[in-house]
Amino acid sequence: MNADDFSQLMRAHRSVRAYRDQAVDGALIDRVLTEALQGSSSSGNLNMVSVIKTSDVERKARLCDLHFGQPMVLQAPLVLTFCADSHRTRQWLAQRDARPGFADFISWHVSSFDAIILAQTTALALESHGLGICYMGTTLHSMGAIADYLGCPENCLPVTSMVVGWPAEAPAQRDRLPPAAWIHSERYQRPDASEIDVHFAERERRGRERYLAMGPAMEQQWREHGVSSLAQYYTSKIKYDPDQFSLDSAALEALLRERGFMVSRSPVSD
Ligand SMILES: Cc1cc2nc3c(=O)[nH]c(=O)nc-3n(C[C@H](O)[C@H](O)[C@H](O)COP(=O)(O)O)c2cc1C
What is the DSSP letter of 92? Predict the structure, then answer.
């Protein structure tokens, strides 16, 4: 693959939410995952990740509930759950009489970054085979329940999931913020109000258009919740409700403690 092919692959990316009723070859998935880990940088080369494949229909149905009923979890033939996993590494340390480690908040980040990097490399690789994918952000909101359902041990938690299958739709490309909004030279350039207006103009127009094109039910919801712009929609009760996010964040913090990802020691005094 040359640089043009890679550009083409990235430009062709769409999240796919409708899938054909056709299995994905298990050997292909294992190969893609194996190559994706090889093709991803990994902090300290510790490879503190695990990926759990779910293709059994009944098990996907349960996962679908845990992903707030998002239909593609059931419809896609495969769900990949990417876990931040220091369990295996910690066990290895213990078996080699090494000092215990990687049970702290930094190691949570290290392992979850590795999992996310692997997920995105996997996504591109799957797309290069013509497969479709869609991330499931609901993983963050049901993390403990998904971990328990998938049998994750201590120091192993799912950070993202991805449905995979042969696309049954060809969605339009979604816009991104323009480069001027987020690429900075040498120093961060704080946007003033007029630059914010410019940077978000296209997003506001296209996002609003897309959501309201979903049908009269969405229009009615916007009216009921007093939503008149895309920004207001994002933090309304019907999208990313800050009150719910706050509750789920507290639960996530408690879960990280419970599963051994927040161990911190006071500095030893002489
Ligand atoms: C971490 C993450 C979580 C996501 N979670 C969901 C999800 O739960 N449901 C969904 O339909 N799409 C989800 N998406 C897909 C985004 O909505 C999508 O990437 C975005 O709208 C841009 O569209 P595109 O991927 O087609 O370019 C998620 C994407 C990411 C990166």
Answer: H
Eight-state DSSP code of residue 19: B
- % helix, strand, coil for the chain, step of 5: 50, 10, 35
Hey, what domains does the chain have and what are their CATH numbers?
A: 12-171 (3.40.109.10), 179-241 (no CATH)
133 lines ligand 1 (CB under 6 A): no
Q: Are 145 and 67 in contact (CB under 8 A)?
A: no
Q: Cα–Cα–Cα angle for 117, 88, 155, nearest 5°?
A: 75
CB of 137 closer than 6 angstroms to any ligand 1 atom: yes
Which tokens hold the place of 197?
């207006």
CA of 97 to the centre of ligand 1 (A): 43
From 135, 203, 244, the mutation candidate for ligand 1 (largest count of ligand atoms within 8 A of CB) is: 135
Mutate to test the pocket of ligand 1, among 19, 134, 141, 176 (most ligand atoms within 8 A of CB): 134
Model confidence, pTM:
0.95
pLDDT in tens, the chain (270 residues): 899 999 999 999 999 999 999 999 999 999 999 999 999 999 999 999 999 999 999 999 999 999 999 999 999 999 999 999 999 999 999 999 999 999 899 999 999 999 999 999 999 999 999 999 999 999 999 999 999 999 999 999 999 999 999 999 999 999 999 999 999 999 999 999 999 999 999 999 999 999 889 999 999 999 999 999 999 999 999 999 999 999 999 999 999 999 999 887 666 554
